[in-house]
Design a protein that fits this description.
heterodimer, A: 149 residues, 2 helices, 37% strand, globular, B: alpha+beta, 3 helices, 3-hydroxyacyl-[acyl-carrier-protein] dehydratase (chain A), FabA_FabZ (chain A), HotDog_dom_sf (chain A)
């Protein structure tokens, strides 16, 4: 059976995405509901479905990859992509802090601000909150084109 | 004394398919650990891939490399004298990461080797660092990982009822692994 994914990922880390570009930034809001049926979550942990905070990094790269076409300036800064230009990789993780657990049923709102980073890289700043606006995690990372490094 | 994969399962509060460490290859309590993680094409991260993709598209997700490193750090901390057991128990979790840099990828068939060091143990926090390699190629450098221990009641949402039989297994010390 022919699949759909063009790069490996632990799970689909966003359920829906909205995005808009301004002069020098791409502003993304992505939502993800924690489900015990998602891949890998059955083992994290047995008895309690706890969303691995590390999967938020996949939320960042998947959302930015999917919406980068909205900002030709940032796409040009990142460099030319291949036939599937949505494949981004983590380059660096400047900082990541986990503030609250993310449990089954929680809807996570990923607010991501993307700006130009060093040549060939984008800087993405994540503010992740639950539906009740409680901040659960914050991260700053740089993204590069997949297959480059 | 447990050894091999059973030892890892007895120590880590995660289960299949989230167990991302396959073997402890070196262990020095309070100092360092080396572990191995074999990347397999049968992992869930490779499901639903399109046909006819070039090989580089099968790069193992870098978030998973970092998670595997974090589990290795947990094994080290759980086996140290100042680990979560000494700090009153609780689930070992990553509280903060800083200055991590990816410099390569891993693919199905590769073995990722993690080297983790304890830099400091302070109360119920452990400050660790290290790197991950494929062969002699460094693919990840972790500048700082701060591990914290959180009571199960806090993790479950502030006292929510959790079946003790369904709770994660109590962490145990890794001990001296078979080499």
């Amino acid at each position: 059976m022919r699949g759909e994914r063009t790069y490996a990922r632990p799970l689909d880390a966003t359920d829906r995405i909205t995005a808009r570009a301004d002069a020098d930034a791409l502003l993304i809001e992505a939502a993800k509901t924690v489900r015990a049926t998602d891949p890998y979550l059955a083992g994290h942990f047995p008895g309690i479905t706890l969303y691995p905070a590390i999967f938020l990094l996949d939320g960042i790269r998947q959302a930015v990859g999917a919406e980068l076409h909205r900002s030709p300036v940032l796409a040009a800064h990142l460099g030319r992509g291949g036939p599937h230009g949505d494949w981004l990789e983590l380059g660096t993780l400047g900082s990541a802090r986990v503030l609250r657990p993310m449990l089954e049923g929680d809807e996570l709102l990923l607010r991501i601000k993307v700006t130009a980073g060093p040549p060939g890289a984008l800087r993405a700043v994540l503010d992740c909150r639950r539906a009740d606006d409680t901040q659960v995690a914050k991260m700053t990372t740089e993204l590069v084109r997949g297959g480059i490094a | 004394m447990r050894s091999g994969y059973g030892q890892i399962l007895a120590s880590l509060p995660v289960r299949h398919p989230m167990v991302l460490v396959d073997r402890i290859t070196e262990f020095n309590a309070d100092r360092s650990i080396e572990t191995a993680k074999a990347v397999a094409g049968s992992e869930p991260c490779y499901q639903a891939m399109a046909d006819d993709l070039p090989p580089e598209r099968y790069a193992y997700p870098r978030s998973m490399i970092l998670e595997s490193f974090g589990q290795s750090a947990a094994l080290l901390w759980l086996g140290s004298h100042g680990g979560p057991d000494a700090a009153g128990g609780g689930l070992p979790m990553v509280g903060r990461l800083r200055n991590c840099r990816f410099t390569g990828s891993a693919f199905p068939g590769d073995v990722i080797r993690h080297r983790v060091r304890i830099d400091r143990l302070v109360d119920d926090n452990a400050f660790m660092s290290g790197e991950s390699l494929v062969g002699d190629r460094v693919v990840l450098t972790v500048g700082s990982l701060i591990a914290v221990a959180r009571p199960l009641s806090v993790v479950a949402g502030g006292g929510a009822a959790v079946s003790t039989t369904a709770a994660p297994p109590a962490p145990r010390r890794p001990g001296n692994p078979r080499k």
